[in-house]
Structures are given as C-alpha cells and as structure tokens.
Amino acid sequence: MLITNATLITWGENNQILPDHALKLEGDRIVDLGPAAELRAKYPAAETLDARGQYVMPGNICAHTHFYGAFARGMAIPGDPAKDFPEILERLWWKLDKALTLDDVRASALVCLVDAVKHGTTTLIDHHASPNAIDGSLDVIADAVQQSGLRAALCYEVTDRDGDAKATAGIAENMRFIKRLQQNPHPQLAATFGLHAALTLSDAVLTACRDAWAGGFHVHIAEHEADEYHSLNRYGLRVVDRLHQFGILGEASIAAHCVHIDAREAALLKETGTWVTHQPRSNMNNAVGAADVEGLLRLGIKVCLGNDGFSNAMWEEWKAAYLYHKAAHRDPRRMGGYTITEMAITNNAALANRFFPQAPIGVLAPGALADIIFVDYYPTTPLSAGNLPWHILFGFEPSLVTTTIASGRVLMKDRALLFLDEAEITAKSRALAAKVWERFNA
Ligand SMILES: [Zn+2]
Question: Cα Rg for the chain, rounded, in angstroms?
C-alpha cells in the first residue's frame, strides 16, 4: 500500500515535517518513504491510500493503562466522597475488580481498544485485575487485542489483599501467559509480570513472584504516601529499597507513578535502569500529588507517559502533564513541550520496543512497524518540527484522528472502524456494566 498526499511527521531521533510525501507499506512494515511523485513513479501498481494533505504520523503509545477500568465511567460510589487515594482504592477499584467476570473483562478491554483505535493509540501496556476471574483472564484480553489489530503488553496484578490463594492464582496467571507467548509468540502480544503495589504484597508473596519469574515486573510504586508509610512502618524500608531487595527492579521493569519516592529511591531506579511511568490525569483525579518528573528525567531515568485507564487519547495526557506541573509549582517554566515529547515519544517508543523488538516503533522510517495515524489538522500558524509539541498541546484534538493503521492494517478509515463493531461492543458493554454495578452495590 502506498500512502500518498501526506504531510509526514516522522518523530524519531531527527523529527522532520515532510509535506507532499508518501509512505510505502509492505506487510507490517514501512518499506519506503519519499516525495509523493517519486514514490508514485517507483510503485505504479501499488494500491494507494490518499491522505488528502493530512498530517501522517506514528501511532501513539500508552505506557501504563488498565483495560479493566472501563465500567467505572459514570459510576457513583455510595456514601460520602472518598477522602483520599486509599479510600478510592477500597471503595471503588477493589470492589469493581471483584465484580468482574471473564465476559466483563473481555467487554471492558474491547471498549478501551475501540477508544484506542479511534484516538490513534496503537501500542498499550496494560495492567489487569479481576480477582474473581483470574485464570485465563489474560487470554481473554489477548483475544480482544488480536481482534482489534492493536498491540499490547499484558500482565495480571498479583496482590495478597484477597488472600494467599488469589495471590498464588495471580502468579500462575502471569506465568501461564508468559509461557504461552514464549511457546506461541504473536506479533501483537507481549507479556510481563504484574504486581499491584508494595502495600498489598507481603514478603512471602514477593519471594514467590521472584522465584517464579526471572524477568521484569510492572508495579505501582509510591502512588500515595500510604505506600511509603506502610512500608516504613511494617518493614522499616522505603518502597523502592524493599522492592529492590526482592529483585523487582531492573531494565525490564516498569514502576508506575513514583510520586512519593525520595532521592535514594530515585537513584535506585536509575541504577537499576527501571522505567518509570507518569499518569498526570490520574494523579490529579486521585489528588496524590505531582511526581518530580523533571527531576527524574534529569537524573537519567526513562520516564514514560501512561493514562492509568483514562481515555486512550494520549494528547489529553500531554495536555494534563503540561498544565499540571505548572499549576503544582506555580511556575510556567515547568514541563515544557520538549519534556513531554521526551516522555511520550522518545521514552514510550523505547519502552514499547523492549516488548516488541521486531522493528522500530513510534517512527516513520523504512524498516519501522507500520503504526500510523492520519490527523485532520490545518494549522492556523506556522508549524515546524521545532514548535510541533505546542501545536499538539494547543491545537490537536483526539477527534482529529481520522485513520488508524497498526502493523500495516487499516483499522479505521475516515473515522469508520473496519475491524471492531463499535455499536455491538458498546451495547454489550452497557448491558454487562449494569450488572457489574448491581454486584458492586450489593
Ligand atoms: Zn495504574
């Protein structure tokens, strides 16, 4: 396929804006890139997809999400509003996840995947919980991911908050899925090992996880002070120090949030090469504070951008990051567009490539995976590679994504979904969510 009449935004090490260009795709890769007339002459027989002058750029990447959270939309928590994040966990998330069946897990994932296709997010790293439907839950999500045409790295969050048997079942689910992909790799799927957070992981469970798996983990770290206080109180150690003792950190591990870590914990994350993800909309919503993202980046930590289950429209997360740190510090110099680009583009692509090493992700270049979106944006001011982040922050809207391609397959064309049936998925989700809400309130 030849994508013609495009204004390319290449991202990658040397981001370029290339008007009137074309991209040649073959299989799941980009194989050629050049001026439109040149490529049309070179590939006269190729099927063409006319971008009609739209911006054509790599699909977005989400470094930390929860497909299982979709049914929380519009849900009322009975009683007084939760006063802090531990109460939000107990009164919302730890009740919602218990109400999920495997059918709900599938429906919830599909809702998020539809949202991701529509808003141009083509690679996602998910963290799943369904304590009453653990066995096989990652297969159900994997099915949905395959159906969607997107790419996702999956894990099950091990925790001992529901007792030893469920902790053991969580470990088994991670290991079962990891082995499944080792034996039967699939280009759209990757696996890691999920852990909830230090405050719901006993020493015995952490030991069992480490004994089961020698690779990387995906864990929430110090999202709220409670995680640090709990760790200091019970174990005499801060969270990162404790997890490090169990070998949880490392170049294949992801630490979500890290809002309340101290300088030594940051140094440990750096020394071990652990990835950190930042989720500003979630942090604002849960009122947990603002992570020292700029400090962590200055230290050389690879901080990525996730959505923590918020809409899969990553430019919304860009905007939240841009505004949040300015407001939190009362300083308009904080969190500039290039810093957000470093997280959302450079580091997210590098993290995605750890899970999907077959070809470069997040860049328009020959040899890269063909994950591509068309953006119907007509700038009213000059747009250059230099000021692109500010056009995204102040001009781009998720609804401007008209076409989404992943692994060379067109998943949405001119806003019409070609693989997922949005009406059917939505109707099913609404019916199942109503039942989940009944169980939640029972
Ligand atoms: Zn999370």
Answer: 21
pLDDT score of 76 more than 90: no
Per-residue model confidence (pLDDT) at position 77? 83
List Cα–Cα distances, 345 to 58, 186, 306, 339, 342, in angstroms: 9, 24, 11, 10, 6
List the single range of 92-101, 201-210, 309-318, 426-435 with lowest mean pLDDT: 92-101
- Beta strand 372-375 with 55-58: parallel, antiparallel or unpaired? antiparallel
Question: Quick one: average pLDDT of 209-231?
Answer: 97
What is the 56 CA–ligand 1 centroid distance (Å)?
30
Q: 113 CA distance to ligand 1 centroid (A)?
A: 17
CA of 163 to the centre of ligand 1 (A): 21
Residue 272 Cα to ligand 1 midpoint, Å, equals: 21
What's the confidence (pLDDT) of residue 248? 98
Rounded to whole angstroms, the Cα distance separating 268 from 337 reads: 27
Determine the distance separating the centroid of ligand 1 and the alpha carbon of 41, expressed in angstroms. 49
> 341, 12 in Cβ contact below 8 A?
no
**Interval between CA 304 and ligand 1 midpoint (Å):** 13
The Å distance, Cα 220 to ligand 1 centre, comes to 6
Beta bridge partners, 32, equal 24
The dihedral over CA atoms of 97, 101, 104, 109, expressed in degrees to the nearest 10, equals 70
CB 287: neighbour CB atoms within 10 A? 12
Q: How far is the CA of 307 from the centre of ligand 1 (A)?
A: 8
Residue 260 Cα to ligand 1 middle (Å): 15
**pLDDT tens, 308-333?**
999 999 999 999 999 999 999 999 99
